[in-house]
TrEMBL record:
Predominant location category: membrane
Protein name (database record): FUSC family protein
Signal peptide from the UniProt entry: none
Species the sequence originates in: Tardiphaga alba
Positions of transmembrane segments: 17-37, 64-85, 91-109, 371-391, 427-446, 452-468
Location in or out of the cell: Cell membrane
Membrane topology: Multi-pass membrane protein
Keyword terms: Cell membrane, Membrane, Transmembrane, Transmembrane helix, Transport
PANTHER family: MULTIDRUG RESISTANCE PROTEIN MDTO, P-HYDROXYBENZOIC ACID EFFLUX PUMP SUBUNIT-RELATED
Length: 688
């Protein structure tokens, strides 16, 4: 009996092996070109192939383009700094460290494939400048040669990836979308069936948030993929809006179902039957329009008309049905867009229904404070390594600040970069054993290029295979890059054990100094990062409440959702922590409801507007002082007063305002007693 893996196309089943072979071919091409062109360090072209190559052709091209630009900028910076400051080692060290820090800061803020260009511009300057201090007159030739070597590697990797059995980004994106939507259907059924409180459902919610951010990053490479059309890019952007809107919509729906209580199934049989039918339809994953249209009609028929005397239960049901309609629309649109991405064309007669007010902007969460801290950590670490080099007068001491620049840049996104640096050292030690075996046991017996290629094949094919697999990507990259650069292959054999041992010691000293320094300066725990991210979310909600206007809903939603995606993997890693119990989607819903209120306020009476503004001011003050505990009861009174005014309002924004206030009340006070309609006299008695 054949398995699902057996039914995949041949190229997909053996994609890891094919990638490894292709990368090795590109690497040997780059090395041979380096030999033929008499480049000073042809092994840099070999290493660049492994650093640049990605399993997906579009990802390789995007990374290659930015690597070329970053290399040229870094080389230009080294040419500008070394000749002018070589006689002042302290100033030169300060300038290079500052350059690396500034480039890293910009890279961390960018958070797109373009960020690689800024990071590379920083550490390329260190790679060229520090070893050139002893020969400053040759800096221009060194920079040009290094740029040529790296560009040769980039071009070889790009050409082979594009021409030889290219693997498109589109199918990979489609497969990830399939997986995400399967998880979304499972979570939807859990929520509609009342199983959302299970630990498995909470973990699935976090995983979907994190996967949405990862998928967004993968989709960035579609623009560089020749096999993907502009329509695919358009469909992916439309799908992203719905994927990100899905999570807060489902969270709102879960809250409204909880608000109806445990006896809802007997008290509201028609509503219960409707919810069960929606859950069944979501599980069927049917593309036909009729079932979805029928569900929309039933949702509209059950929606109650709200008046000033409407009980809290009717208000909750109206809000629930509104979110249920959104869930049906989002689910139907996701099916259409998923099929369009997978097949390259939209299904005949398919029409997108869900149109979010203001949309969800393609915004990414940026943390200037953490970026500044990370860049400052790199700056200080490089200076510490430079001080060690200068004070000891060590001939190979340039390796220390050079590796510090690379390590601090590569692992800047980690909560504790020293962990990454330690792993870097561990796998480089393994690479050292491989290098020593080649240099002193295998290479001395090789007399021609053909035998050299044959000798390199076993190790580098394994490295490529490891790079192709996400679980071992880091290991393969460390082994390939370090083996290629530290073996330092040339046209003639010139290995010297003393030189090899000295450079190896310099490398380890540099990495250990970097690990110790960065641990003291920059390293934090995941729990600290989680608390900080949550705190920044609370401040964002306070700012939304303080503002008056309706122009930034899309940007707010995009940033808040992206922040949750950044937060999710950290929460998943905190096994047993109370922080995992905090519902970040609840706070996101509050923020979105605040922005909805700001839009509705332009169509309300002055009395309602005054009550809502007073509530928003109280809410902003509460979130600025928030520490994760319960909100003050004074805020609940403000919310209820604003709700009473909104129910009695006759303006065009009444429904939006009421739904927004219900969301805020449920989000901040889920365990509060049911709202009770105020008398007309009481409505006017609360000071605004």
């Amino acid at each position: 009996m054949s398995t699902a893996a057996d039914r995949l196309p041949f190229l997909e089943r053996h994609a890891d092996i094919i990638f490894s072979v292709k990368t090795f071919i590109a690497a040997m091409m780059a090395l041979m070109i380096g030999f033929a062109a008499d480049l000073p360090r042809p092994y840099w072209a070999l290493a660049t192939v492994y650093i640049t190559s990605q399993p997906l052709a579009g990802a390789t091209r995007s990374k290659a383009l930015y690597r070329v630009i970053g290399t040229l900028i870094g080389a230009a910076a080294s040419i500008a700094l070394v000749p002018n400051l070589v006689n002042s080692p302290e100033l030169l060290s300060l300038a290079i460290a500052a350059w690396v820090g500034i480039c890293l800061y910009v890279s961390l803020l960018d958070r797109t494939p373009r960020s690689y260009m800024f990071m590379l511009a920083g550490y390329t300057c260190a790679l060229i400048a520090f070893p050139s201090v002893s020969e400053p007159a040759a800096i221009f030739d060194t920079a040009i040669a290094r740029s040529q070597e790296i560009i040769v590697g980039i071009l070889c990797a790009t050409v082979v990836s594009t021409v030889l059995l290219p693997r498109s980004v589109g199918p990979a994106v489609s497969a990830r979308v399939d997986s995400w939507l399967a998880g979304a259907r499972k979570l939807s059924q859990d929520v509609l069936a009342g199983r959302s409180k299970d630990a498995a459902a909470r973990d699935l919610r976090l995983k979907l948030a994190a996967d949405a951010v990862d998928l967004d990053g993968l989709a960035d490479h579609l623009a560089f993929d020749r096999a993907s059309s502009r329509e695919t890019l358009h469909w992916m952007r439309a799908l992203r809006v719905r994927m990100l809107t899905f999570l807060p919509t489902l969270s709102s729906l879960e809250d409204r179902i909880d608000a109806l209580g445990t006896d809802a199934r007997t008290a509201h049989p028609q509503l219960t039957a409707l919810i069960d039918d929606v859950a069944k339809w979501i599980g069927d994953n049917d593309l036909e329009r009729e079932p979805a249209d029928g569900l929309r009609e039933r949702i509209a028929a059950q929606r109650p008309d709200l008046t000033a005397s409407s009980p809290w239960g009717d208000i909750i049901i109206a809000s629930l049905l509104m979110r249920l309609r959104e869930l049906v629309d989002i689910s139907a649109d996701c099916r259409i867009l998923n099929q369009a991405i997978a097949q390259g064309e939209r299904p005949v007669g398919a029409k997108l229904i869900f149109q979010p007010e203001g949309g969800v902007a393609p915004a990414r969460y940026r943390d200037p404070g953490m970026a500044l801290w990370s860049s400052a950590g790199a700056f200080i670490t490089i200076l510490v390594c430079c001080a060690f080099w200068i004070l000891t007068g060590w001939t190979d001491g340039a390796t220390a600040p050079m590796m510090a620049a690379i390590g601090c840049s590569f692992f800047a996104n980690m909560d504790d970069p020293s962990v990454g640096l330690r792993d870097f050292v561990k796998w480089t030690l393994v690479a050292m054993v491989i290098i020593a075996t080649y240099l002193f046991a295998i290479l001395p017996a090789i007399s021609n290029v053909e035998v050299l290629v044959f000798a390199l094949a076993p190790s580098f094919l394994i490295f490529g295979y490891l790079i192709a697999r996400p679980a071992t990507f880091f290991i393969g990259m460390m082994l390939a890059a370090n083996t290629a650069t530290m073996m330092a292959l040339q046209e003639t054999y010139s290995a010297d054990f003393a030189s090899f041992a000295n450079s190896s010691i310099a490398f380890f000293v540099g990495m250990e100094l970097s690990a110790i320094s960065i641990r003291l300066i920059r390293s934090v725990g995941s729990e600290w990062s989680v608390r900080r991210l949550m705190r920044r979310g609370w401040i964002a909600i306070a700012k939304a409440a303080e503002g008056r206007g309706n122009r930034d809903r899309a940007a707010f939603a995009g940033v808040m959702l992206n922040r949750i995606g950044v937060l999710a993997p950290r929460l998943l890693a905190l096994k047993g922590s109370d922080l995992r119990k905090i519902d970040n989607l609840r706070e996101l819903r509050v923020g979105l409801n605040i922005v909805d209120l700001r839009r509705a306020r332009h169509h309300l009476s002055m009395r309602t507007l005054t009550a809502i503004d007073a509530m928003l001011d109280e809410l902003a003050a509460s979130f600025r002082k928030h520490d994760g505990t319960a909100m003050p009861q004074a805020l609940l009174c403000r919310v209820d007063h604003a709700m009473a005014a909104a129910i009695d309002d006759r303006g065009a924004g009444r429904t939006d305002a009421l739904i927004g206030l219900v969301g805020i009340r449920r989000g901040l006070f889920p365990d509060a007693p049911d709202y009770q309609p105020e008398t007309p006299a009481h409505v006017g008695s609360v000071a605004a």
